[in-house]
Amino acid sequence: MLNILSYFSSIEFYYFAFILIIIGAITQSAIGIGFGVPACFLILFEPTMVPSCIVLMGTFLAFSNALLSLKDVIKMDLAYSFSGRVIGSLISIPLISLTIGTKSYLIIFGILLLITVFLSAKKWSLIANKKNITIAGACSGFMGTLIGIGGPPMAIVYQNSSARNVVATLNMFFGIGALFSVLLLIYIDLINFREVMRCLFLAPALIIGVMLGRQNIVKNYVNQNLKKLILIVCFVSALIVLGQAFI
Known about the structure:
Layout: H1 2-7, H2 11-31, H3 37-45, H4 52-68, H5 75-99, H6 103-121, H7 130-147, H8 151-157, H9 163-187, H10 193-213, H11 216-246
Helix pairs in contact: 2-3, 2-9, 2-10, 2-11, 3-11, 4-9, 4-10, 5-7, 5-9, 6-8, 6-11, 7-8
Protein backbone atom coordinates (compact mmCIF):
# COMPACT_ATOMS: atom_id res chain seq x y z
CA MET A 1 0.00 0.00 0.00
CA LEU A 2 2.74 2.43 0.95
CA ASN A 3 4.68 1.61 -2.20
CA ILE A 4 1.64 2.31 -4.35
CA LEU A 5 1.13 5.66 -2.63
CA SER A 6 4.71 6.55 -3.46
CA TYR A 7 3.80 6.61 -7.14
CA PHE A 8 0.09 7.52 -7.17
CA SER A 9 -1.67 10.47 -5.53
CA SER A 10 -4.10 8.21 -3.63
CA ILE A 11 -5.19 4.59 -3.45
CA GLU A 12 -8.54 5.61 -4.92
CA PHE A 13 -6.81 7.09 -7.97
CA TYR A 14 -4.74 3.92 -8.35
CA TYR A 15 -7.88 1.78 -8.50
CA PHE A 16 -9.45 4.29 -10.89
CA ALA A 17 -6.41 4.09 -13.18
CA PHE A 18 -6.41 0.28 -12.82
CA ILE A 19 -9.99 0.07 -14.13
CA LEU A 20 -9.23 2.50 -16.97
CA ILE A 21 -6.27 0.39 -18.08
CA ILE A 22 -8.41 -2.77 -18.08
CA ILE A 23 -11.01 -1.07 -20.29
CA GLY A 24 -8.34 0.27 -22.64
CA ALA A 25 -6.61 -3.12 -22.85
CA ILE A 26 -9.92 -4.86 -23.60
CA THR A 27 -10.71 -2.55 -26.53
CA GLN A 28 -7.15 -2.70 -27.88
CA SER A 29 -7.14 -6.51 -27.70
CA ALA A 30 -10.61 -6.84 -29.22
CA ILE A 31 -10.48 -4.40 -32.14
CA GLY A 32 -6.84 -3.33 -32.48
CA ILE A 33 -7.26 0.24 -31.18
CA GLY A 34 -8.60 1.91 -28.06
CA PHE A 35 -5.85 1.81 -25.45
CA GLY A 36 -5.48 5.57 -25.70
CA VAL A 37 -8.93 6.05 -24.17
CA PRO A 38 -7.56 6.09 -20.56
CA ALA A 39 -5.47 9.11 -21.56
CA CYS A 40 -8.70 11.11 -21.85
CA PHE A 41 -9.21 10.74 -18.09
CA LEU A 42 -5.62 10.57 -16.88
CA ILE A 43 -4.84 13.95 -18.45
CA LEU A 44 -7.54 15.41 -16.18
CA PHE A 45 -6.48 13.78 -12.90
CA GLU A 46 -2.77 13.02 -13.32
CA PRO A 47 -1.32 14.84 -16.37
CA THR A 48 2.20 13.48 -15.77
CA MET A 49 1.01 10.01 -16.83
CA VAL A 50 0.30 11.27 -20.36
CA PRO A 51 1.81 10.44 -22.77
CA SER A 52 4.58 8.56 -20.89
CA CYS A 53 2.66 5.78 -19.10
CA ILE A 54 0.11 5.33 -21.87
CA VAL A 55 2.80 4.93 -24.53
CA LEU A 56 4.95 2.65 -22.37
CA MET A 57 2.11 0.32 -21.37
CA GLY A 58 0.68 0.48 -24.88
CA THR A 59 3.96 -0.88 -26.25
CA PHE A 60 3.80 -4.05 -24.14
CA LEU A 61 0.06 -4.43 -24.73
CA ALA A 62 0.33 -4.15 -28.50
CA PHE A 63 3.28 -6.54 -28.71
CA SER A 64 1.49 -9.09 -26.52
CA ASN A 65 -1.56 -9.12 -28.77
CA ALA A 66 0.51 -9.11 -31.96
CA LEU A 67 2.63 -12.08 -30.89
CA LEU A 68 -0.50 -14.03 -30.00
CA SER A 69 -1.79 -13.48 -33.57
CA LEU A 70 1.51 -13.32 -35.44
CA LYS A 71 0.35 -15.46 -38.36
CA ASP A 72 -2.42 -12.96 -39.17
CA VAL A 73 -0.12 -9.91 -39.41
CA ILE A 74 0.09 -8.33 -42.89
CA LYS A 75 3.86 -7.99 -42.80
CA MET A 76 4.23 -6.04 -46.06
CA ASP A 77 2.13 -3.19 -44.69
CA LEU A 78 4.32 -2.79 -41.61
CA ALA A 79 7.25 -1.35 -43.58
CA TYR A 80 5.14 1.46 -45.04
CA SER A 81 3.17 2.22 -41.87
CA PHE A 82 6.26 2.19 -39.65
CA SER A 83 8.23 4.49 -41.98
CA GLY A 84 5.37 6.97 -41.64
CA ARG A 85 5.26 6.42 -37.87
CA VAL A 86 8.94 7.33 -37.52
CA ILE A 87 8.43 10.61 -39.39
CA GLY A 88 5.34 11.54 -37.37
CA SER A 89 6.99 10.70 -34.06
CA LEU A 90 10.08 12.78 -34.82
CA ILE A 91 7.92 15.78 -35.77
CA SER A 92 6.02 15.57 -32.47
CA ILE A 93 9.07 15.62 -30.17
CA PRO A 94 9.90 19.37 -30.44
CA LEU A 95 6.23 20.15 -29.80
CA ILE A 96 6.18 17.95 -26.68
CA SER A 97 9.38 19.54 -25.35
CA LEU A 98 7.95 23.04 -25.76
CA THR A 99 4.44 22.44 -24.42
CA ILE A 100 4.41 19.54 -21.90
CA GLY A 101 3.09 20.62 -18.51
CA THR A 102 1.62 23.86 -19.87
CA LYS A 103 -1.85 25.02 -20.90
CA SER A 104 -0.67 24.84 -24.50
CA TYR A 105 -0.30 21.07 -24.14
CA LEU A 106 -3.86 20.79 -22.84
CA ILE A 107 -5.09 22.79 -25.81
CA ILE A 108 -3.16 20.60 -28.25
CA PHE A 109 -4.41 17.47 -26.49
CA GLY A 110 -8.03 18.65 -26.62
CA ILE A 111 -7.88 19.70 -30.28
CA LEU A 112 -6.22 16.47 -31.40
CA LEU A 113 -8.78 14.51 -29.39
CA LEU A 114 -11.60 16.31 -31.19
CA ILE A 115 -9.89 15.50 -34.50
CA THR A 116 -9.73 11.81 -33.57
CA VAL A 117 -13.46 11.84 -32.76
CA PHE A 118 -14.22 13.46 -36.12
CA LEU A 119 -11.99 11.02 -38.01
CA SER A 120 -13.50 8.01 -36.24
CA ALA A 121 -17.12 9.13 -36.65
CA LYS A 122 -16.87 10.09 -40.33
CA LYS A 123 -17.52 7.45 -42.99
CA TRP A 124 -14.47 6.95 -45.18
CA SER A 125 -13.90 4.88 -48.32
CA LEU A 126 -10.13 4.68 -48.30
CA ILE A 127 -8.14 1.78 -49.73
CA ALA A 128 -5.31 0.28 -47.70
CA ASN A 129 -2.63 0.99 -50.32
CA LYS A 130 1.02 1.95 -49.78
CA LYS A 131 0.42 5.71 -49.93
CA ASN A 132 -2.54 5.77 -47.53
CA ILE A 133 -0.88 3.38 -45.09
CA THR A 134 2.27 5.56 -44.98
CA ILE A 135 0.28 8.79 -44.46
CA ALA A 136 -1.86 7.15 -41.78
CA GLY A 137 1.29 5.86 -40.09
CA ALA A 138 2.74 9.37 -39.98
CA CYS A 139 -0.46 10.83 -38.50
CA SER A 140 -0.62 7.99 -35.99
CA GLY A 141 3.01 8.51 -34.98
CA PHE A 142 2.49 12.24 -34.46
CA MET A 143 -0.67 11.83 -32.40
CA GLY A 144 0.45 8.69 -30.59
CA THR A 145 3.73 10.15 -29.40
CA LEU A 146 2.23 13.54 -28.52
CA ILE A 147 -0.93 12.52 -26.65
CA GLY A 148 -0.82 8.71 -26.47
CA ILE A 149 -3.78 8.26 -28.87
CA GLY A 150 -2.76 7.20 -32.37
CA GLY A 151 -5.30 4.58 -33.37
CA PRO A 152 -7.92 6.42 -35.50
CA PRO A 153 -5.76 7.22 -38.58
CA MET A 154 -4.73 3.57 -38.95
CA ALA A 155 -8.21 2.26 -38.18
CA ILE A 156 -9.66 4.45 -40.95
CA VAL A 157 -7.30 3.01 -43.56
CA TYR A 158 -8.06 -0.57 -42.54
CA GLN A 159 -11.81 -0.24 -41.90
CA ASN A 160 -12.73 -2.19 -45.05
CA SER A 161 -10.15 -4.96 -44.53
CA SER A 162 -10.46 -8.36 -42.87
CA ALA A 163 -11.04 -7.85 -39.14
CA ARG A 164 -8.77 -10.72 -38.15
CA ASN A 165 -5.81 -9.41 -40.15
CA VAL A 166 -6.49 -5.81 -39.17
CA VAL A 167 -6.40 -6.42 -35.41
CA ALA A 168 -3.15 -8.39 -35.65
CA THR A 169 -1.49 -5.88 -38.01
CA LEU A 170 -2.58 -2.84 -36.00
CA ASN A 171 -1.24 -4.36 -32.79
CA MET A 172 2.12 -5.14 -34.39
CA PHE A 173 2.26 -1.64 -35.88
CA PHE A 174 1.46 -0.01 -32.56
CA GLY A 175 3.93 -2.25 -30.76
CA ILE A 176 6.85 -1.35 -33.02
CA GLY A 177 5.76 2.28 -33.37
CA ALA A 178 5.15 2.80 -29.66
CA LEU A 179 8.57 1.30 -28.87
CA PHE A 180 10.13 3.97 -31.08
CA SER A 181 8.06 6.61 -29.28
CA VAL A 182 9.21 5.21 -25.92
CA LEU A 183 12.86 5.65 -26.94
CA LEU A 184 12.17 9.25 -27.94
CA LEU A 185 10.32 9.97 -24.67
CA ILE A 186 13.19 8.44 -22.68
CA TYR A 187 15.59 10.69 -24.59
CA ILE A 188 13.69 13.83 -23.49
CA ASP A 189 13.27 12.39 -19.95
CA LEU A 190 9.48 12.02 -20.00
CA ILE A 191 9.85 8.31 -19.26
CA ASN A 192 11.92 7.71 -16.15
CA PHE A 193 12.05 5.36 -13.15
CA ARG A 194 8.87 6.80 -11.63
CA GLU A 195 6.86 6.18 -14.81
CA VAL A 196 8.25 2.65 -15.12
CA MET A 197 7.18 1.85 -11.54
CA ARG A 198 3.71 3.22 -12.18
CA CYS A 199 3.41 0.94 -15.20
CA LEU A 200 4.57 -2.07 -13.19
CA PHE A 201 1.89 -1.45 -10.56
CA LEU A 202 -0.71 -1.25 -13.36
CA ALA A 203 0.65 -4.27 -15.27
CA PRO A 204 -1.94 -6.72 -13.80
CA ALA A 205 -4.65 -4.55 -15.38
CA LEU A 206 -3.03 -5.08 -18.79
CA ILE A 207 -3.01 -8.85 -18.32
CA ILE A 208 -6.68 -8.89 -17.26
CA GLY A 209 -7.63 -6.69 -20.22
CA VAL A 210 -5.79 -8.88 -22.74
CA MET A 211 -7.39 -12.06 -21.40
CA LEU A 212 -10.88 -10.56 -21.55
CA GLY A 213 -10.43 -8.72 -24.83
CA ARG A 214 -9.37 -11.84 -26.75
CA GLN A 215 -12.60 -13.69 -25.95
CA ASN A 216 -14.87 -13.89 -29.01
CA ILE A 217 -17.96 -12.81 -27.11
CA VAL A 218 -16.14 -9.72 -25.84
CA LYS A 219 -14.71 -8.95 -29.31
CA ASN A 220 -18.17 -9.01 -30.86
CA TYR A 221 -19.69 -6.87 -28.12
CA VAL A 222 -16.91 -4.27 -28.21
CA ASN A 223 -16.96 -4.10 -32.01
CA GLN A 224 -20.72 -3.56 -32.12
CA ASN A 225 -21.47 -1.45 -29.07
CA LEU A 226 -18.41 0.22 -27.62
CA LYS A 227 -17.22 2.42 -30.51
CA LYS A 228 -19.98 5.01 -30.08
CA LEU A 229 -19.44 5.12 -26.33
CA ILE A 230 -15.70 5.64 -26.81
CA LEU A 231 -16.37 8.51 -29.23
CA ILE A 232 -18.72 10.16 -26.73
CA VAL A 233 -16.19 9.76 -23.90
CA CYS A 234 -13.39 11.22 -26.03
CA PHE A 235 -15.57 14.13 -27.18
CA VAL A 236 -16.67 15.06 -23.65
CA SER A 237 -13.10 14.65 -22.35
CA ALA A 238 -11.78 16.94 -25.11
CA LEU A 239 -14.27 19.63 -24.10
CA ILE A 240 -13.33 19.29 -20.41
CA VAL A 241 -9.59 19.46 -21.21
CA LEU A 242 -10.07 22.54 -23.39
CA GLY A 243 -12.24 24.07 -20.68
CA GLN A 244 -9.46 23.56 -18.12
CA ALA A 245 -6.93 25.10 -20.46
CA PHE A 246 -8.90 28.26 -21.06
CA ILE A 247 -10.34 28.82 -17.58
